[in-house]
């Protein structure tokens, strides 16, 4: 995983180029360090550039969001596009499909090797010239953004984890017991492939990846926002509280009354608040 171009001190404001100046989304395949093709969409956003044709002038801002979807999502799902649609009011947005999802290659490892997919998307954002990168992950993607930030210090400027688990192998709710059946049983993986457009790896984790809680403890000094709903049917409130406690003083915890799980449950107003927090937090950290 890359730490960005020569570290934080080398980052500068993004300037228009053949891709970022089009003002329309660009779809391309990325390639991970282990050779998996990852379907991605880059949206320059609504207010990234000044209207002047003088490309020597700096952008209004250089913030880009890299959105990590939940399990069984992909870049074309309406809830993923809705998230991108709100965040693009605050900066550019990179969305992508994790391995085994949508048109991406490979098989889902349900949060393990997916950290390489996110790293490829972050590298894409840096290659386009963006100086401030904020990762925003939901559910499985929420655990991935935590691990990525812990394993690649300095790679991102802020992290937002929404509806994420605090520990692996949790089976304390009915939805999580169904998910474990989907992942661990041959019949479940067939349902995943043909019913949910998600190809799931048949092998167990070896070794078991860094836990989300331990990852949260290693993210500082990058700002961290943990968001969780009171009506999350997958992970009860002890999960976000464990993450926040592990992260310490550099993290904020938002408990959202009435909110359910992940992207489908996150209202536009909450996504806008996340966009505003990310803009301020990443600027302060730079």
From TrEMBL:
Domain AB hydrolase-1 intervals: 66-272
Pfam families hit by this protein: Abhydrolase_6
Protein name: Alpha/beta hydrolase
MF annotations from Gene Ontology: hydrolase activity
SUPFAM superfamilies according to UniProt: alpha/beta-Hydrolases
PANTHER family attached to this UniProt entry: HYDROLASE, ALPHA/BETA FOLD FAMILY PROTEIN, NON-HEME CHLOROPEROXIDASE
Disordered, as annotated region: 1-27
Keyword NAD: no
């Amino acid at each position: 995983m890359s730490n960005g171009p020569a570290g934080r001190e080398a980052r500068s404001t993004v300037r228009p180029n053949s891709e970022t100046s089009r003002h329309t989304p660009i779809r391309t395949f990325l390639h991970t360090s282990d050779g998996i093709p990852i379907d991605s969409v880059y949206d320059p956003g609504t207010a990234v550039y000044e209207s002047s044709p003088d490309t020597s002038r700096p952008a209004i801002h250089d913030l880009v969001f890299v959105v990590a979807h939940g399990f069984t999502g992909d870049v074309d799902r309406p809830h993923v596009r809705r998230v991108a649609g709100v965040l693009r009011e605050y900066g550019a947005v990179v969305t992508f499909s994790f391995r085994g999802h949508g048109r991406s290659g490979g098989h889902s490892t349900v949060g393990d090797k997916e950290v390489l997919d996110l790293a490829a998307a972050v590298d894409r954002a840096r290659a386009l010239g963006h100086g401030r990168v904020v990762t925003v992950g939901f559910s499985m993607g929420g655990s991935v953004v935590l691990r990525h930030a812990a394993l690649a210090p300095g790679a991102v400027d802020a992290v937002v984890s929404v509806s994420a688990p605090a520990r692996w192998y949790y089976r304390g709710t009915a939805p999580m017991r169904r998910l474990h059946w989907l992942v661990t049983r041959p019949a479940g993986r067939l349902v995943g492939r043909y019913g949910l457009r998600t190809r799931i790896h048949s092998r167990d984790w070896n070794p078991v990846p860094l836990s989300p809680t331990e990852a949260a403890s290693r993210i500082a000094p990058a700002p961290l926002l943990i968001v969780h709903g009171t009506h999350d049917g997958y992970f009860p409130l002890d999960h976000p509280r464990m993450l926040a406690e592990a992260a310490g003083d550099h993290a904020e915890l938002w408990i959202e009354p009435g909110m359910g799980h992940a992207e489908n449950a996150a209202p536009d107003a909450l996504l806008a608040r996340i966009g505003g927090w990310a803009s301020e937090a990443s600027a302060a950290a730079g």
